[in-house]
Design a protein that fits this description.
The complex is a heterodimer. By secondary structure, chain A is of the alpha/beta class. Chain A is about 45% helix and about 10% strand. Chain A is built from 15 helices and seven strands. In chain A, the strands form two sheets. In chain A, strands 1-2-3-7-6 form a five-stranded parallel sheet, sandwiched between helices. Chain A has a two-stranded antiparallel sheet with strand order 4-5. In chain A, helix 10 links the parallel strand 6 and strand 7. The radius of gyration of chain A is 23 Å and the shape is globular. Chain B is of the alpha/beta class. Chain B has a seven-stranded mixed sheet with strand order 3-2-4-5-7-6-12, with helices on both faces. In chain B, strands 9-11-10-13-14 form a five-stranded mixed sheet, sandwiched between helices. A two-stranded antiparallel ribbon of chain B has the order 1-8. In chain B, strand 13, helix 10 and strand 14 form a beta-alpha-beta unit. In chain B, helix 3 runs parallel beside helix 4 and helix 8 crosses helix 12. Classes of the chains: A alpha/beta, B alpha/beta.
């Protein structure tokens, strides 16, 4: 195993333990050819066929969601969409290893994980469509609003995990973040707080090699992001982020440790951002096509499909059903996101405080008067001001 | 609401003790109230405001944190998402700056961005202001940054009783409250009244007919002193203590200025772009036809907070307030 455990095994009381393993080679069960990884063949997890198929199916649906959303930006239906194409093993493997009452702290690139958790696709895309900031009820979905300022959601995960621990619950909080986010101060503070309080938190870094245009080598001089765990005195794991079995198992084990009171885990999932940062970005300015091709050959979905076929689990019927579900989702997105969203100007003032301040009441009334006057002008056929 | 004065023979307590008692009473009333920050545990805080809370409520209710203000705020936000009511301490005004992103991007916005689904009942206690001989980074008046951030309530007591009642109200509020504690008043003493006006209501501390002094936090006592001194010169000054800057009590302020026809706004923070600029603009917009003179401001200079040996030149003084009052275009004087 390549779990970089930093817990004291010697009983010496030295928190870091001298036997810490610093092997940076990622945990892998499925190699890029979809074969069980040689070194770990004997340690292969006994994933039930139904669980494997459900994971694969979620990846098929998740990828279709991503492709559809990207298309809808080009059509002007969404303002922007940061694609996670090629990161499905992370997006889906991580959340399927959690319980429904565990909390997820997603970033703007994690729509696929949210849809996998059962969040309505339109509600998941509200932020990126621009009709409101967060479209779902975080309390009901145990999913925080998608976070844009990098790594600032990580301390929230530490805090929520601490709260769950103090409340005596076995809830776990998982925060996603990218390789770029690990440079932020909030990332450091979150890991430190979680470790000090032994909070049941998982910090899941999707190392997709780029922070917009800046490659990992300019983000860190460390051999592996997972090594940062050593400095905080917490467990650290490096996984092949395109191997959904490895991701699922790493998160499941981290959650198990967290629930057992053994504190937080840092997981670095090594993957690749196949698309540009967003539609507004041009990735050809900073990376070679050959690099994209290299990662294309390591596609997480193709890999698990090959494996499932080899095990005889992927029949034509199963494949057809999954594709049908994916197409149904895409059709629903086209239908429900096709028109202009309905917005209500009263929302501007209604949710700033529990009770609007007198000043906000005045401003809301002024805007209402402006809108009413414009409507009257329109009725009378007069040109607007 | 009328204040209920404690009529028993209880001794006077300091403003710091009033904050401590508010925390105790809130923690007793609601087990979801937790207190944390730097040195707030065993030590009881550098100003002893949290004295004895860890001893009496246990380390699960009042605890020390690593030295990281953004982490403190972020942790508080996560705990509030899970149903707790955190009260966190920023040790000194200027040490709250690392937490500003968490405050501006998350604390202030969470309710709004989730259409009310995720309120954050967090109180951020910020000991602030000068006049204590503090070295660099220990005397800032940072209220302007928070006041300019929609989604926050910004509250600042000037009396022992307000320190108690406003903090209790802040902890009970479902909205985030930046609770600015004037640290030079920490040791001022008075009898405690445990109920008072709500957040958002200003208080007239002194009735007067000729001009209104508008102050908050540490400058309220300076304004009252100036009003006493001015009465010797024949000026009958009214003093309004804002108590909360956000929400702002336009009604109380404007009623007073319409009555007196003159206004001076007083605060320690720099004048340019300061809270006083907003107050002067609001008063001018709403009371223009009642005003006998332009609204004047007496504020700190537009400089970084000076070293302790020079702070007496910077802080709004009684004399400077009296000069401002004298300049308000009086006839027959």
């Amino acid at each position: 195993m390549t779990v970089l455990t930093t817990r004291d095994k010697t009983g010496s009381g030295f928190p870091l333990g001298f036997d810490t393993i610093l092997d940076p080679s990622p945990l892998q069960y499925l190699d890029e050819h979809g074969a069980l990884s040689g070194a770990l063949r004997d340690d292969a997890p006994e994933l039930a066929p139904e669980e494997l198929l459900a994971t694969w199916r979620a990846m098929v649906v998740g990828r279709r969601f991503d492709v559809q959303a990207t298309t809808m930006v080009r059509q002007g239906r969404l303002a922007v969409y940061p694609s996670s194409y090629g990161q499905e093993a992370c997006e889906i493997g991580a959340v399927l290893a959690l319980r429904a009452d565990d909390w997820l702290f997603p970033t703007y690139r994690d729509c696929v994980s949210m849809v996998t958790r059962g969040i309505d696709p339109v509600e998941a895309l509200t932020l990126l469509r621009g009709d409101w900031h967060c479209g779902y009820d975080p309390q009901r979905r145990h999913t925080a609003p998608q976070c844009t300022p990098l790594a600032t959601q990580a301390p929230h995960a530490a805090g929520l995990a601490l709260a769950a621990k103090l409340a005596g619950d076995d809830t776990v909080a998982l925060a996603f973040c990218g390789d770029g986010g690990t440079s932020e101060g909030d990332f450091h503070e979150a890991l430190n707080f979680a470790a000090v309080y032994q909070a049941p938190a998982i910090f899941f870094v999707q190392n997709n090699q780029y922070a917009i245009s800046v490659p990992l080598a300019k983000q860190t001089h460390a051999a592996a992001l997972a090594h940062k765990a050593v400095g905080y005195g917490m467990a650290g794991v490096r996984v092949d982020g395109n191997d959904v079995i490895a991701v699922r198992r790493a998160v499941a084990e981290a959650a198990e440790r967290a629930r057992a009171g053994e504190g937080p885990t840092l997981i670095e999932a090594v993957t690749y951002r196949m698309q540009a940062h967003t539609n507004a970005d041009d990735a050809t300015r900073y990376r070679e096509e050959s690099e994209v091709e290299y990662w294309s050959a390591r596609d997480p979905l193709a890999r698990v499909e090959t494996y499932l076929r080899a095990r005889g689990l992927l029949t034509d019927d199963v494949l057809a059903e999954a594709n049908q579900a994916a197409e149904a989702l895409a059709a629903e997105m086209r239908l429900r996101l096709g028109g202009e969203p309905e917005v209500d100007h009263r929302d501007l003032f209604a949710h700033v405080y529990a009770e609007p301040t007198p000043q906000l009441r005045e401003q809301a009334a002024a805007l209402q008067a402006e809108i009413d006057a414009a409507a009257l002008d329109a009725q009378a056929g007069e040109p607007g001001r | 609401m009328t204040a209920t004065l404690d009529t028993t023979q209880t001794p006077e307590i300091s403003l710091a003790q009033a904050v401590n008692r508010a925390l105790r009473d809130a923690m007793t009333a609601d087990e979801k109230v937790v207190v944390f920050g730097e040195d707030v545990g065993v030590l009881g805080g550098v100003f002893r405001v949290t004295d004895g809370l860890t001893r009496d409520f246990g380390e699960q209710r009042c605890f020390d944190t690593p030295l990281a203000e953004a982490g403190i705020l972020g942790t508080a936000i996560g705990m509030a998402m899970y149903g707790f009511r955190p009260v966190v301490e920023m040790q000194f005004d200027a040490f709250a700056y690392p937490a500003f992103e968490q405050i501006a991007s998350h604390l202030a916005k969470m309710r709004n961005r989730t259409r009310g689904a995720l309120p954050l009942p967090v109180v951020v206690r910020v000991p602030y202001g000068g006049g204590i001989g503090g070295v660099e980074h220990h005397s800032d008046s940072s209220e302007g940054y928070f006041v300019a951030t929609p989604g926050l309530h910004v509250v600042t007591p000037a009396t022992v009783s307000d320190a108690y009642t406003l903090l209790r109200a802040a902890i009970e509020s479902d909205d985030p409250v930046i609770f600015m504690e004037p640290k030079r008043l920490y040791w001022s003493k008075d009898r405690l009244a445990t109920s008072g006006p709500a957040i958002g209501q200003a208080a007239v501390r002194r009735q007067g007919a000729d001009a209104t002094l508008i102050a908050y936090g540490p400058t309220v006592s300076t304004a009252l002193e100036a009003a006493e001194a001015a009465s010797a010169d024949g000026y009958d000054l009214e003093v309004v203590d804002l108590r909360s800057i956000v929400p702002f009590d336009d009604a109380t302020v404007c009623d007073s200025v319409r009555k007196t026809g003159r206004a001076v706004v007083i605060h320690e923070a720099a004048g340019f772009g300061g809270t006083g600029a907003e107050i002067a603009a609001r008063v001018s917009e709403r009371c223009f036809h009642w005003l006998e003179a332009p609204v004047r401001r007496v504020t700190g200079f537009d400089i970084p907070y000076p070293p302790p040996k020079l702070e007496r030149y910077h802080l709004p003084s009684v004399d400077r307030i009296l000069d401002a009052v004298a300049s308000l275009q009086w006839e027959d004087r």
